[in-house]
Design goal:
Elements lengths: L1 E8 L5 H19 L4 E3 L8 E8 L2 H12 L2 H9 L10 E6 L2
Antiparallel strand pairs: 1-3, 1-4, 2-3
């Protein structure tokens, strides 16, 4: 099983808007692409972050899902609408294998 995690740092004063965006894009991805995402917030460390997490059966499934998402114009429209909530260049993706 492959775990995918995307983390982004929130701009000061944008926490509320960032949380609304996080839920909105999660709902869109679930409805439009069938992916089960979780929205996560940190308990320790920098509190001005949000993360999305999902799991795939293997790397091929991750690649297929990413290709479909990045080809979706509505996805990019939604991503761009939330850009003002996040610090440019702060997004980080991690791919982990479960044991």
């Amino acid at each position: 099983m492959i775990a995918f995690l995307r983390v982004a740092s929130i701009k000061p004063g944008k926490t509320g808007a960032a949380m609304m965006f996080a839920k909105e894009i999660t709902t869109f991805i679930k409805a439009g692409h069938g992916l089960e995402l979780e929205v996560l917030t940190p308990i320790g460390g920098n509190p001005q972050r949000v993360a999305w997490s999902t799991r795939y059966t293997d790397l091929a499934a991750l690649e297929t899902a990413m290709k479909k998402l990045t080809a979706d114009a509505k996805y990019w429209e939604l991503v761009n609408s939330g850009a003002d909530c996040f610090i440019a260049g702060s997004m980080r993706d991690e791919i982990w294998q479960t044991l």
